[in-house]
Amino acid sequence: MRGLLQPYRNWGALLLILCLFMGVLSSYGQAKKDSVLPKVDSLKPVIVRPTAIRPHMKRDTLEYNTENIRLRTYANVEELIGRLPGLQIDANGNITYNGERIQRLLVDGEDIFGGDPTLITRNLDASKIAKVQLLERKSNQALFTGIDDGSRTKTLNLVLKEAARDSYSGKIEAGGNAKGNYDAKGFLAAFRGKEQFAGLGFAANTGTTRFNGGSGGGISFNDGSSDPLGASAGTGIPHFAATALHYANTWDGSANHLTGNYQFGHYSTSPVTTTHSIQIQPDSIYGQDQLSRSVNRQDQHSFTGTYEFKPGARSALQVFYSAIQSSGQNQFAATGNSTFNDTLVNSSQRTIRDKVNRLSLMGYALWKTQIGSNPERILSATLEFGKNDVSTDGYLFSQNRFYRPDGSLNSMDTIDQRKQITDHTLAISPNINYAQPLWKGAVMGLSYRYSFTGDDPLQATYDKGEGKYGSMVDSLSSHLKLQVVKQYATISLQGKSQHLNYSIMNAWIDYRYHQRDWLTGATPHLHYLNWSPWVNVTYTVNPTTSLVLNYSSSVTQPSITQLQVVKNNNDPLHITLGNPDLKSSSNQSFSFEYRRIRSWMMNLGLHLGFVSNNISTRTITDSLGRQISQPVNVDGGMSSALSFSLSKKILGFDAGFRATGSYSRAVNYINADLSNNDTYSAGGGLSLNRYLADKYSLQLYSSLNYFDAVSSINTAAPLHYWTQSHAGALTLFLVRNFEMNTNATYTWQQKTSAFAGNTSVLLWNAYVSRNFMNNRLALRIQLNNILDRNAGITRTNTANITTESATNILGRYYLLSAIYHFDRKFGKKEKTF
Fold it and tell me: What is the C-alpha to C-alpha distance for residues 562 and 618, in angstroms, rounded to an integer?
């Protein structure tokens, strides 16, 4: 407990001051609300605004009415969502509901940019939103054909106000400093009836890859970590430039519907990362340390488009197309060493340089027609296709030294090779569906799908001799011809009534895999049958209470890479080897959710998951620390989680509480021993938010978590530690035309026997802005990482391996910025005669 409280010792006074300040603000806000009222025209209508924002249930959709929420001028959607009980937003703009991440965001049902929700939440004007809806969205194919395929995506839909459907708005922002840091962006959104247009541009070297702060690829992007040779040391401080365009329109009633999204991104970074990992072995601890550097550059273009045509009331056609093209160059260098119980066993130096090019094409055509007079009796057909071409040309140089227990050199080896990796995949999948209404609100679906995938992967490795890379290494090379055929037969039942929505599905899968190695002549085959049921039931007791029950069973097929026998020696001390005898794994998942929305907004969630025949790993470590890993099938994997959250307005604050607990077991082989790796975690958090229009905005978040892991092969080496995370943001509008903000995030991880020191990170930022031209123009000075105590430190756990890494990030810096907002109505079209 002493260790747990240690990071707070220097924060006691600050916490006391903050509490006092909150009290003063609360008193000030209440007094001003009652005593300082603006002059009003008594003949103008009075708008009554709700003091509490409570959602309500509409069937299986949670809906917030936000039309009359009072926000500051030009507040963005993220500020609006942050005030909705039950929804949380972190510093990177990730939105969660009861701990589950929101994966998609729609505007009037349209998927703008088709990627990161922050592209909209941090830029679209919140004053244009009438409702925010939370729903479990079905796949596009299920929505079109009327047959549920079991796919669900947590989605937010922003419903525009009627007045917003005839306007355009946006902002332009540019900032920089004397050190050469810059951050420039522009955003435009236009709506006219059912027509939508949005565009954005972004360029920055401040370490962000999102349109407005944070990290993680706001434009859907493949960075160097997706390189087949693994030539990336991490994220680092990227230089990033991107643009994206979106267009959508519906005309002739609803007969024609078109959407299109285009994105371009340029990414370059030079990360430096230190990594320390421990692996629990039966009689020892295997430790690894590495310092890596890389230079990664990539350009990417992507386009998606959908066209839907309804020639009449009884039929429809939908066509979708997607294309992604990227090219990248990478250079990587690393030094490292490995130990058994702190005794050095090897050291290594490694460099990789390569070029990677990708082209991915994918599309489908959907057709449906109504049979007879019942609109739910539908016959539909689908044709899907996909084509992927990936080529990698690179070079690997590695020098490894191995030591005796007394520290003397035992042996040394050197690798100097050229790598050529290509992959050409073609996939075609037709299917046919029939939906038959049975009774009121109930529909039975029948589907048959045939899927063919052909691949021609090549991995060629050449040793250097006489100054040339001309000698092929047979053990590290392969040229395969692969064919995978899957057949699916599905029967489903879905229905809805006043209180009940349900979907029940059963799928039978016939899987056939054929492989031929042109170099060795080997021809392994796989054939097996699987059954995959799925059930989803939502019972809405009343507009404030609902129950959701979900059961699913899915099959995970081994990947082509896992099935290939050929070795991968990109890291010669950690060689991976395929396994042609792998079988598919079966996953079963059960979840239950209870929602209650009254004066207290309550959510309770339960999850249970079981895996049989799981595709895991066998890792063999020899006495010199060299490892060979191979995928194998194991039984015994499982997971469980319980989550609970409460939200309520208390003393003028939107207060929230969340608690979670989880248990998981991952099974793998360590040498010849089967290891059951049990992981326990528990934690909770509090949040306080208050917004007083034209006065201040305050957000506070605090969480505490405990982690415990133990492996059955060595119970004497458990791993357990506490972590804490605290964040706060205060924005003041007390002085006319001025906005002052300070925000801080503090994280702490307790030391362990493997990680000798507590790690703490404090990121403190602040800005002051002055508004002009009725708030349309703002000049801002922004200070980032004021104490220069931010650090890119992460700690992860997988099976019997725990890793802590630290990567370079941008230190203290400032930006001087100008932001211009615009909001216009479209002019009325003149009638011509």
Answer: 12
